[in-house]
Amino acid sequence: MEGKKLTLAITLTLGLTTVLNGSFVHAASVSELNKQQKELEQKKSSVISELNEASQKLEENKSNQAALSADMQKLDAEIQEATQKLDEINQQINQKNQEITNLENEIKQIEERIKKT
């Protein structure tokens, strides 16, 4: 009978130790999961911050792009105006060159008349 009590006591002790060890392992797993959860929440927070920054930069880029587009349209208009003025100046130069050529021809004709007289 003493042997049976001893065996039962050892069995109960081993069972209790196993349960306690299992609880300890389970508690360690929960602790590890909590740690991983905190790490993931930190990563999530970091990613959200990065997304917010990227979104803000995107909005700034859209604003800058709109301003640049307006500037480009203004510059295009100025270029067209300058080109038109240059064309007008070139026409005037061509007219003056033609007038000079005509005058040179008249001078030559007058010189030839003078030589003939």
Question: How would you describe what is shown here?
Answer:
The protein is built from 1 helix and no strands. About 7% of the residues have low confidence. The protein starts with a helix and ends with a helix. The longest helix has 115 residues. 98% of the residues lie in helices and 0% in strands.
- In percent, how helical is the residue content? over 70%
Q: What is the number of strand segments?
A: 0
Would you list the SSEs in sequence order as H and E?
Answer: H
Q: Overall pLDDT, averaged?
A: 83
Let me know the largest β-sheet. Answer: none
Strand percentage, roughly? under 5%
Total count of helical runs of at least 4 residues: 1
- What is the CA-atom radius of gyration, in angstroms? 49 Å
Shape: rod-shaped
Stretches where pLDDT is under 50 for at least 5 consecutive residues are 14-21
Task: Quickly give the structural class.
Answer: mainly alpha
Distance between the termini: 167 Å
